[in-house]
Write the structure tokens for this entry.
Amino acid sequence: MPPDSLRDTDRRPPPGGNDLIEAAASAVSAASGLVFVNDGATNESVPLRTIRPLSQPALYGDRWAPVLIEWDTEAQNMRLAGNVVGVGGPTPVSVDGQLLVNVTGVIELDVEQVMDAQAFDGQGVTIVMHELAHLVGLDHVADPTQIMSPSAMPGVNTFQAGDLTGLALLGQGTCDPRF
């Protein structure tokens, strides 16, 4: 796939995919106090190697674009090459020229690897939790017993002490009321 081509806009979550997202969002919400709202499916397509617009009134009205969760294969998305199971993160804006506020973001999930992990040992939801935690601001940690370790550890299926501390701190911030 050429690097600037558009992703397929008619991709649907795999069977059970929405359940994984719901369970992961519930876990991140419980740990952080942040509230996730499911806006449903979209026909938005994001060109690879470009910045996604923060506001898309034709698609979403007069507000920030919602978080986009994509289910791709390695063949469809070069960012998921090799053992990369997911990629996620926020999109911040500068407020008053200094404070950065996360207003939206994108999560890209390797449909085959996530669903295989879910079927094998239930870690598909853990992968989605990991990417949602990136979305709200957590980074990787060196401790392999935490969900935010860059590599999944068998048996680590819930947020651990370090994960919980970081998520609780992120949940204490104030929301920017603009838009």
Observations:
- The chain has one domain: 17-170.
- The radius of gyration is 16 Å.
